[in-house]
Amino acid sequence: MQINEVIRKYRKEKKLTQEEMATRLGVTAPAVNKWESGASMPDITLLAPIARLLGISLDELLSYNADLSDIEVSNILNEIYAMFNTESIDTVYQRMVDIVREYPNAEKLILSLASLLLCKSVVAVENRSKYDEWIENCYEKLVTSENETIRLGAADALYAFYISKEKYEEAEDCLRFYSEKDPEKKRKLALIYSRTGRYDEAYKLMEEALFTDYQIMSVLLHEIFSVSIDTKNFNKAQKIMEKESALAELFEMGEYHKNAGRLELAIALKENDKALEYMESLIADTDTMTGYMKSDLYEHMEFKESDPILFETTRTTMLKQFAEHERYKDVRKLAGWKEFKKKYY
């Protein structure tokens, strides 16, 4: 959009007539009409009053471009890539500065340009600080974007930029742009702690992130497993169950978590003898439900002491289901069921 289009667009948004705008600015209505038609330009002394009247910045008034299409962004980036093959980095840098001045609101483009220059400037010794300042300014403006994707992309880039400069306080400040629920926040903070010698704190955060990742993956695998059972896709259910069990072993969750899915699959496949074996295994291994608390993987984490009542309640609940639930009725017909009942009931 050119300045004439900007004036016309925002005047209409403000619901001002050309005459009303002229009166507010102390000019004639034909002058405003000429501005909007592109026949003439406002006097430089009127630019600030016009921007204030329209409720926009001077940047928006003089070089407004709210959005570029993906194709336009791609074309500009291709131009820059080509320039890097034929021109000096300083020449390309000046072109980038001109582009950002021309498109100050094209956030996706600015983020890409800043990141590209950062990559290319790694090998440029001369004038590195000049490039760094421009790159940093681009990222700092973008972390306040209303677009969440742009904001988080800029925060990621700015964090990495500060880490590479060993500016750890500034890198930590970037983490305020992340949600408290974002597991990446802990990982990034842990890296700062490890780089600054706060090793116990780094261990704790990384172990917490590891523990959280296990829970997320385990839940997802079990949900896929459940869908496979519901759709009678037993080959897939078998593969997923094996991965779920292997995951529990890898993350040292304890024997109970390794075998929980095996019982469900055996019941679904009507492999009743196996089901009875897994039922007994789960009862016997109930105390390992919190086996991760003894693992070196999580030695810096703080867990509440396991309540023995939890294990007893779990066993009691499982035994009640085994004895009464419809899904286990065929297992209860086995000869081995009597021995099982004698042992646990």
Structure characterization notes:
It is a single chain. The chain is mainly α. The longest helix has 32 residues, at 199-230. The chain has 3 domains: 3-63, Orthogonal Bundle (434 Repressor (Amino-terminal Domain)), CATH 1.10.260; 70-178; 203-344, no CATH class. The protein has helices at residues 3-13, 18-25, 29-37, 47-54, 58-63, 70-86, 89-102, 107-121, 128-142, 148-164, 168-174, 183-195, 199-230, 234-250, 255-268, 272-284, 308-324, 336-344.
Oligomer: single chain
Stretches with pLDDT under 50, minimum 5 residues: none
State the secondary-structure class.
mainly alpha
Q: How much strand?
A: under 5%
Q: Characterize the overall form.
A: elongated
How far is the N terminus from the C terminus?
80 Å
Order of helices and strands: HHHHHHHHHHHHHHHHHH
Helix content: over 70%
Number of domains: 3
- Per DSSP E runs of 2 or more residues, the count of β-strands stands at 0
Characterize the main sheet.
Answer: none
Radius of gyration, whole Å? 32 Å
Q: Output mean pLDDT.
A: 91
* Separate helix tally: 18
SSE diagram, text form:
Layout: H1 3-13, H2 18-25, H3 29-37, H4 47-54, H5 58-63, H6 70-86, H7 89-102, H8 107-121, H9 128-142, H10 148-164, H11 168-174, H12 183-195, H13 199-230, H14 234-250, H15 255-268, H16 272-284, H17 308-324, H18 336-344
Helix pairs in contact: 2-3, 6-8, 7-8, 8-9, 8-10, 9-10, 10-11, 12-13, 13-14, 14-15, 15-16
